[in-house]
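Example for tutorial group B:
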C-alpha cells in the first residue's frame, strides 16, 4: 500500500506547544502499521528543540517528517483570525499548494487518534474536495445578522462542518480552490476582513464559506472527529474513546482535568517529557462540569439525568429542548418510514 500523508499546523508562541502536536502525532503512529509521511506547517516560532524532537521520532518509527515554514507576515489577511486562535489555524489553507500528494489527512494539534489512520485515509473522496464531520454548533452564539450573512454564503446549521479533522483531496483542491494569488481561502479571508465580517472560528468559518452548498464536502461518521465538548463527552471512559478520534474542541486536557483528557495524557506519557505527566496532571484544576458530575454521581437517582443537566447548563434550556425535539422528531419519522 502507498504511504499515508498527514499534516499538522502550529504556531509555538509558548515554546512548548509543539509537545501537544507531538502527542497528536504519537497517537497516529501508535495506532497504525502504515508508512507515514508527516508534513508540519510551522513558522519562525518553531524551535531547534522542537525540530530535534520530531527528527528523533522520525528515526524511531516508520515515518518521514517534512517541515514547511510559512512566512505569515506576507499574508496580512491572516490577522483576521480571532485572538483566541493562533495564526497557524489558517496554515491549512496552504496544504494543497505545498504538499505533493493527492490525498492528505489533516488534524489539529488538540486531537488524539485512537483508530488506524488508514480507516480515514481510505474513504473515497474522488468527487469531493474534503471529507469532514458535521458540526451543529458551528454557528452557535452568532447574531441573527451574522447567521443570515453565513446563510447567504450557503452555510447553515445543517451543513456546517468542523475543520479539526479533514480528509483533503489536494489534487482536486488545486483545480477548484486555486493556488498562489488565486488561493480562494486567502481571498475569502481578505474579503471578510475588508467587509468586517467577524470570523469567530477563523479557518473553520472560511472553509465553510468557501464550500457552503458547493457539493464538494463529504460528511463522514462522527467517530472521525468526536468533539469532546458535546453531549457530556468530557466523561468518556477509555472503553468509549478507544474506537474514535477525540478532538478537544474547547477545554484542553493540558489546562484542566477531565476523564476523556486521559487519552491525551496516555500519549504525552509516552513522549520524551513523559516523566512529568503525572506532576502536570496533579497540578490541574478539575473541570467545573466534572465537579458537578462527581457530586451528582453520589446520588443514584440522579445518574440518569446528569448528562441532561450538564447539557442544559452548557447550552441553555431552550437549546436543550430544541435538540430533544429534533432528535425525537427524527426518530419518529424513521420509525414511520
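The residue assignment follows.
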Amino acid at each position: 500500500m502507498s504511504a499515508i500523508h498527514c499534516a499538522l499546523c502550529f504556531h509555538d508562541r509558548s515554546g512548548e506547544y509543539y509537545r501537544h502536536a507531538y502527542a497528536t502525532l504519537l497517537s497516529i503512529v501508535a495506532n497504525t502499521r502504515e508508512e507515514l509521511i508527516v508534513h508540519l506547517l510551522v513558522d519562525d516560532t518553531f524551535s531547534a528543540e522542537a525540530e530535534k524532537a520530531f527528527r528523533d521520532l522520525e528515526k524511531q518509527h516508520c515515518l518521514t517528517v517534512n517541515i514547511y515554514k510559512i512566512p505569515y507576515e506576507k499574508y496580512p489577511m491572516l490577522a483576521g483570525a480571532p485572538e483566541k486562535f493562533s495564526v497557524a489555524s489558517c496554515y491549512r489553507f496552504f496544504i494543497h499548494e505545498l504538499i505533493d500528494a493527492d490525498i492528505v489527512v489533516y488534524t489539529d494539534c488538540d486531537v488524539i487518534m485512537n483508530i488506524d489512520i488508514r480507516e480515514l485515509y481510505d474513504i473515497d473522496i474522488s468527487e469531493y474536495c474534503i471529507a469532514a464531520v458535521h458540526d451543529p454548533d458551528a454557528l452557535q452564539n452568532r447574531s441573527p445578522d451574522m447567521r443570515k450573512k453565513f446563510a447567504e454564503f450557503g452555510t447553515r446549521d445543517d451543513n456546517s462542518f468542523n475543520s479539526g479533522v479533514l480528509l483533503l483531496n489536494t489534487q482536486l483542491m488545486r483545480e477548484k480552490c486555486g493556488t498562489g494569488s488565486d488561493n480562494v481561502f486567502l481571498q475569502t479571508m481578505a474579503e471578510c476582513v475588508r467587509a468586517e465580517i467577524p470570523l469567530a472560528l477563523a479557518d473553520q468559518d472560511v472553509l465553510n464559506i468557501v464550500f457552503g452548498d458547493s457539493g464538494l464536502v463529504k460528511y463522514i461518521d462522527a467517530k472521525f472527529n468526536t468533539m469532546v465538548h458535546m453531549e457530556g463527552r468530557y466523561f468518556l471512559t477509555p472503553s468509549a474513546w478507544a474506537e474514535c478520534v477525540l478532538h478537544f474542541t474547547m477545554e484542553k486536557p493540558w489546562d484542566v482535568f477531565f476523564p476523556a483528557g486521559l487519552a491525551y495524557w496516555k500519549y504525552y506519557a509516552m513522549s520524551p517529557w513523559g516523566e512529568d505527566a503525572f506532576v502536570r496532571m496533579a497540578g490541574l484544576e478539575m473541570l467545573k462540569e466534572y465537579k458537578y458530575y462527581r457530586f451528582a454521581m453520589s446520588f443514584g437517582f440522579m445518574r440518569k439525568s446528569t448528562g441532561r443537566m450538564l447539557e442544559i447548563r452548557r447550552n441553555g434550556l431552550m437549546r436543550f429542548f430544541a435538540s430533544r425535539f429534533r432528535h425525537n422528531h427524527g426518530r419518529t419519522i424513521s420509525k414511520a418510514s
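Residues 317-336 form the longest helix (20 residues). Compare this with the pattern of hydrophobic and polar residues in the output above.
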